[in-house]
Specification:
heterodimer; A: alpha+beta; Rossmann fold; OB fold (Dihydrolipoamide Acetyltransferase, E2P); six-stranded mixed β-sheet; 35% strand; globular; B: MetI-like fold; 11 helices; 79% helix
Chain lengths: 363, 267
Amino acid sequence: MSNPFIRIDGVTRTFGEVYAVDDVSLDIQQGELFCLLGGSGSGKSTLLRMLAGFERPTTGRIIIDGRDMTDVPPHARDVNMMFQSYALFPHMSVERNIAYGLHRMGMPRAQIATRVTEMLSLVQMEKLARRKPDQLSGGQRQRVALARALARRPKLLLLDEPLGALDRKLREETQLELKKIQSSLGITFIVVTHDQEEAMTLGDRLGVMNEGRIVQVGAPHEVYEFPQSRFVADFIGTVNLFDGTIAEDRDTDAVIASPEAGIDIRIPHAVAGTAGQPVAVALRPEKIVISRTLPDPYDNVLTGQVTDIVYSGNLSVFHVTLASGKRVRVSRTNRLRAESEGIGAGDAVQLGFTGHSAVVLAS
Amino acid sequence: MSRTVLRLVVIAGFVFLYAPIVSLVIYSFNESRLVTVWSGFSTKWYGELLRDPQILGAAWISLKVAFLAACLATVLGTLAATALVRHGRFRGQTLLGGLVTAPLVMPEVIIGLSLLLLFVALDNALGWPGGRGLSTIVIAHATFGTAFAVVVIQARMVALDRSVEEAAQDLGARPLRVFFDVTLPGLAPALVAAWLLAFTLSLDDVVIASFVASPGSTTLPMVIFSKVRLGVSPEVNALATLVIATVSILALIAAWLSARRRGAVSV
């Protein structure tokens, strides 16, 4: 395989005693939309700022398109950034904001005018070209910031919480639009976000960060369905975690003894552990079937009592307390307006799931 | 009830502050040579004023000094504020901050005296500035004007969004370019305010100027001061009224400029 487009090679960045980014290595391919996902203080923004050149790695190297960029200042990098605050130039019109980077490239005026028009139509801002940033709404500013960052046709576009300031509805529309623009231009995007839903919708791949390290990299469905650690399982989406120990581990199946769950959980594959090893079984709320008496047989059935029902329109989330005191969350799509089998708070219920849907975590 | 009390307090405050100025302005239009006796409206003292070469000369010197000192103070203030705000922690940062703003609290007499000693020592050592005059007053006024300019510009610089400068850098601007394209326009209201402040302070100063001026470079406040020592004359009232008008107009321009900016933001 050819060299990756971006290679982050053992990069560490310390601020005094604090390791903001701790020995991160990551390869990103040309044309990829990569999401860096993490909570505040996870180091995702510092990593992005190192790619832009605003911070220098304490150790390690950053290679973009075959060139070592570690010591290259921001203005000399073929990389542009869309800032979280948008950072538009307040004293310049929309047009002049977009043209700024082109002037710095020494592009001829006629060509700049063409490119600005092109960018304005890309983000559908033609009519507001002469406005100043303070005369625009949040969504419009976001578009201008995107157009300005794309105008130079960078090899790599960095986006710091690009949709953070938009309301929910606008955010969903903009996510799709961003994805469309990215695939039509073929520019590599690296998006930093703390919003796991956004990361999953946007990203071709995700990198989950925690305490300065990348803890898992993969396609959104891989990270969601096959988390490799408790942290990732818990950070991405909602999860029920059952503590237990490996009781049996054979070539084709395994059994996890979990007093918390009140049963021996059957897993239809090997878990590659040793008997007696403590593990956790992770199970997403939507992968559990809830019923007073389950109509179909399941390899694993828990019993408990409904303590709370959280209704959120399309979904209802049932909070079920097991005999061990463990609370389990089960979500169900509200397919019918009036559920035929109305489960209420206080009802005794059965929870069924197949071992295929569970993930056994060693750490 | 408490509203009425508040209103009265505010009115009393304004009367306390402005009654002397208003009476001065009114008496500048008094026909009588006796300052405290009203004998009818006249603008003759303004005419007298315009025929007085000493006052006209002093006014011209004052304006020149104020203009140059304000420009110098704004430039130096911007540089000092940049160093203090933009360059992270460096050795002597606190010391620089303290030294730059010290003239705010230093007695004027001491500033004036120390500058005079400095100029005399420089003259002996280097043969410059070659006696006292316009340039020494400008330097002296720029010195304390800078202190005020730093405070005003620093406050604005702290409030500026750093990422706007980073965006310019990211779009290919070198550091100096970033400063002129983004930082300076962002600072503009503070620069105007600092300049006007330094200008007015220079126009007002009599103590420091008395130390570093020469007989040939007497500023307007010095002339007023010396005239008043011989007794208050209606001529001085007229002169003071003109000074007040000038300063008020400058203040109004500054207020209008900043109000216009705020108006644009709220659109």
